[in-house]
Fold this sequence. Notes:
The complex is a heterodimer of chains A (167) and B (424). Helix content of chain A is 83%, strand content 1%. Chain A has six helices and one strand. Chain A is globular and about 60 Å long. Chain B is α/β, with parallel strands linked by helices. Chain B has a six-stranded mixed sheet, with helices on both faces. In chain B, strands 1-11-10-5-7 form a five-stranded antiparallel sheet, with no helix packed on it. In chain B, strands 2-4-8-6 form a four-stranded antiparallel sheet, with no helix packed on it. In chain B, helix 1 (8-26) packs antiparallel against helix 2 (29-44), helix 4 (249-266) runs antiparallel to helix 5 (289-300) and helix 7 packs antiparallel against helix 8. At the A-B interface, helix 3, helix 4, strand 1, helix 5 and helix 6 of A face helix 1, helix 2, strand 5 and strand 7 of B.
Amino acid sequence: xxxxxxxxxxxxxxxxxxxxxxxxxxxxxxxxxxxxxxxxxxxxxxxxxxxxxxxxxxxxxxxxxxxxxxxxxxxxxxxxxxxxxxxxxxxxxxxxxxxxxxxxxxxxxxxxxxxxxxxxxxxxxxxxxxxxxxxxxxxxxxxxxxxxxxxxxxxxxxxxxxxxxxx
Amino acid sequence: xxxxxxxxxxxxxxxxxxxxxxxxxxxxxxxxxxxxxxxxxxxxxxxxxxxxxxxxxxxxxxxxxxxxxxxxxxxxxxxxxxxxxxxxxxxxxxxxxxxxxxxxxxxxxxxxxxxxxxxxxxxxxxxxxxxxxxxxxxxxxxxxxxxxxxxxxxxxxxxxxxxxxxxxxxxxxxxxxxxxxxxxxxxxxxxxxxxxxxxxxxxxxxxxxxxxxxxxxxxxxxxxxxxxxxxxxxxxxxxxxxxxxxxxxxxxxxxxxxxxxxxxxxxxxxxxxxxxxxxxxxxxxxxxxxxxxxxxxxxxxxxxxxxxxxxxxxxxxxxxxxxxxxxxxxxxxxxxxxxxxxxxxxxxxxxxxxxxxxxxxxxxxxxxxxxxxxxxxxxxxxxxxxxxxxxxxxxxxxxxxxxxxxxxxxxxxxxxxxxxxxxx
Lengths: 167, 424
């Protein structure tokens, strides 16, 4: 019950972020869909439904950013990413622990782990932003092809990293 | 035990992909930044290679108990390194219910400190409860990786039928030479007083009847009856069974056999057991508490083993089935082979009492409620009464028992010759 409550709180944060950027249609519709699917995922302890809800919330956020074109909303993106991590972790833990007893200290250890991971993600993103700002000052005046090449190399490295990770 | 990636990795990768794709599509850095916590979680949750070992101890509070009693299972985990999340699952066999706690739990194990988890089970019906070792699963951060192992440390708990005291078990017609509780007409050593006769040289002074001596003016002694024991053989029919698991006619017969064994052993009789079924098993007659334990252990494993082979009672050696023994057959009388064996024993002069465990109620319990089933049960009861009457006419002493109510009440209806007329 408590895990479901935590799941609903995190889901509320996930759907509130796109609405905070643009509280109007079609973002509202997408957010409602994300909320419906996410609620079903939290109630049924389904990681698949929670993933679909997360993807829908990301689409809603992208649409909101595209239509509203706000500035200085980087923290919103970070919060959305951290909230999505928490949502998936909470739903998966609820799924695993259904029907089981939790020993003393388990819930506290999990909360520490979830919040620590979310916080670490935010710190990593902030470091990335700082790094990007430093690089940006170095490539002022660079032509578009150069940026594209650099981005491609970066993307290739990330891809290689992901392959190593999931291998 | 090695780490394996969980399904959550795929979910996180999916969302990372979506965030990056939408970020590139819309040209907004917020979405790319949103992918970073997801990617960081993926990296942090990654585990590879062998998982650290966890020492597991699996214990039960008792290895012997009666049906309906509870046993406490204790799982102790100990590890060199800390594990924030360890999942423990003890698979339970059927006919066992959890009374307290949960066999499935999530625990936190601290380095060097034992973590204990207990739960209590109630055991329904006689059985040899086999608790295999627990499954232990270590979960990595965020549940992104898990390492699972099964600790095979089986513990066996013998769940014996609950013994209900029997006040009047059928008395045997023939006794043995050893001292017991049955008063013999023969004179000798004993505590049951018999006739009074004049004193003769060699008589003990303690047998002098002073009241008769004073009245008659010369020494008289009180004679005593010998007290003998008997051989009792329980013949358990395991050729067929009906009824729901744990409440079959064989289960009822086993309970009855255990009650009878305890009652006769308390009377200093020698009690043996023959399991007449697909496999012919027996236990030589003996007496004492150790024999009761042996009988209960043998009864615990009594079960129906299907076979086409019919084993004749001639195969049973006389030391297992003594000719003077009282044979108590517990059977639903459903299998013609057992009926034939019982009739054969009576024809050979054995003192046989058949406790006919009624299969009607047990079979009725497996069927849904309905008028047709009720009618069928009534018809079956009538047919069964007719069959039992036919067997009685052939010389069998049959006691009908429903398997649920007290066996004492059913046995009270047995008409036997009085003990005092028994030959020595």
